[in-house]
Amino acid sequence: MYQSLYRKYRPKSFSEVVGQDHIVRTLRNQIKMGRIGHAYLFTGTRGTGKTSVAKIFAKAVNCLNPKDGEPCNSCEVCQAINTGTTMDVLEIDAASNNSVNDVRELRESVIYSPSLTKYKVYIIDEVHMLSTGAFNALLKTLEEPPRHVIFILATTEPEKLPDTILSRCQRFDFKKIPTKQIAQNLERICRDSGIQIEENGIKAIALYGNGSMRDAISLLEQCASYKEGLITYEDVCEILGVANEEMLFSLLDHIYEKDAVASLQQLDKILSYGIDLGNFLRSFTYMLRDMVIYKTGGDELIEILYGDQETIKAKSQKYSIGFLTNALEKFTALQREIRYAVSPVTLLELTILRLIRPEISYDMGSLIARIEELEEKINKGYVATKEESPKTHEKDELEKKVNAAKEAKEEREEIDLGRVWLEVKGILKKERMMLYTFLEKGVPHLKDGKIVVEYSEEDALLVEQLGRPENKDFIEAVVEKVVKKRIPIEFALKKSEEDLLIKQVKEFFGDGIDIEII
Amino acid sequence: MNYREFVESIKKGQIAPLYLFYGEERFLLLDAVKRLKARLLVPEFEDMNYIVIERENPEEYVEAIIENCETLPFFSNYKIVVVKNEEEQLSKIGDKELKRLTDYFKNMVLGNTSLVVVVVSGEKIDSRKKLYKFMEKEAAVVEFKKLTPEEAVNYAGYFLKKHGKKAAKKDVEYLVKNIGTDLYSIVNELEKVIAYSEGETLDLEEAREVLSVTLQQNVFHLVNAIGMKKEKEAYRALYALLSKGEVPLIILTMIARQIRLIAKLKSLEGKAFDKKSIASYLGIPFFAVDDIVRQSKLFTREDLYKAYKECLRCDIALKSGTEPSFALENLIKKLCKQ
Asked: Which of A33, A277, B23, B268 could form a disulfide with B144 if both were Cys (CB 3.0 to 4.6 A apart)?
């Protein structure tokens, strides 16, 4: 019969348990010292080994020849427990047996001594699913259980248990298993069962398992059944359908190195895997967040990272905190905006470009990042010496300024907008009274050789009217008559979200309040 | 009577025929029952002479109690009958039955030298009830109160010592501060620490590996960390709160409240006020004033103005769909950096 990898490689002794050294050590010592408690609570996310450890513990306390707190796995008792043929170790799924009556039944069976073993062990899985009444009934048993009984409660959501239950148990928190250890275990399994897979692939699977051994092994199995022979890193990424962390980091690298081309290419590559944009952003922001936290707190805060501690630790050396914070802020804001975006990818690309060229964004974060960069340059001694280029540079600058001034002057000389506008309006007043009144309300500017007439929000209707080809053409013709030159005209709303917001608020609360936008 | 007096009394051999146990400290309560057992019963025949009465139906109680009290101890001088009354089952029986019970207690149990009846009630008793009026008059009532922190520290120290671990007083205090004064929790946590650490003295660093309860799961811990501008501490507290499932908006509200308290206190600056009137002005308990005073020194008026704005910004961010942990972490960063 085919047995899934996960079940086949379930740990059978304490030494095989991965990543929970603090728990294993405590339990083994308790067995050695003969200080076995009668109620345990195992908590932790899925796939961290709660049930496995519970079973090993059940064997270890009952084993006929235990060695150093370990079960021997060969005596009668161990084998009976391994094969599940004894009634003395009971695994109960609280999710489906959650009523008071179930617990009462359990309490009645508790009083009978075990038949084969020393202790009767009740492993109650998903214990948070019990009803309130059931908890109360269980509590009484936990308070004063017969000497031959050990309760092991396992749950992923300890906060759902009543305090009274929590305080009666010895609680063990199972940690997420570090990626490195998952990878090692996967390697062992591959060797053992003849699966050929690239090392990178194993790492990717381990990462995707996100601290859960069960998930990781299931994924490995999935990959193994995907094709015969060597499974490559690319295969793994394809099967998982994820932007693996390597790709994200290399994107971040490109952004950090201010390589716009490479960044956009990398982004394109990531997206070409068919990864959901939201998912991508989420992993990216979590990664940034972790690095910001690690940069702030160092090892002290290492336990509150979401991602793999080792990776974050290693990678965050590279980047400056200013850069990371700025990037995090930008991407968090993006996460919010992207829901309403018509073209999310464009927005994403824009954000990346803004990070690469802080010159085009003026918020505090970017400025700080720029200053930090300058400081770093100064610290490293990259101060441009005065003798060399600066003079020519200054000259250039000067020339540029002169040129710019000239240009500006020329433009001004070209048309005196105020005068022209008066004239245009004069003509219109005679020929098209309606257009004149419309124009009256707008404010003209010169911009890139165009005349832009801005209107406030209330006059949106006018903009629409004026924007009609027949009206626009007419006005442009008049302007041409006045300045002897064709100048395109645009009608635009004074774009100000703040005005818009204030207007909405005023509509809601009525006038007469002062509104300040922060 | 309290626990200590009870222990003293049975040491002297003053055994009452009828006890009422109640109180919040269930560990000691259970310990008291165990002590009675150890004092009065012969281990070999313990099972025969220790009877626990618990029934689903309150109506069956009286009959069951009387029935069990009638039988004689078996190869023993004493017999203990424990009546489980944690859910106030005895208050649900009718007056007539209750009268029958109290009469039985009065005539047959009091004065009986080979029987001890222990009624175990919940955390609190309602002394207006007939049963309790009777018990207060006739029985030995023992209340198991919650321990004070000092008592808890003493007990924890004693427990460690009993199991061969030396520990500095301040380390034990730290443990108790983190675990709380509930003895069940203390014993369970210490059991782990004892089994985990292989050395002779208690090492806090080591202990932290296996401790489950943390002070940081408290929102006040978070706001105080922010008030004291302890950034790292605040991050950790926030993480603990969020992973415990606290609602982000509530966390923000508490942070804003703290800023408001500090700002209010700031407005009193330069005026002579005593602690008591500060407390009533701020609407906080007397003992919390010191913390706020200390924190207000770390913020200038300008800072507070900005802090308000940051709170508002965080509020907008939370309500418009930013990842809560990011929004709150950002806020902490801004508040602590000022």
From this structure: B23
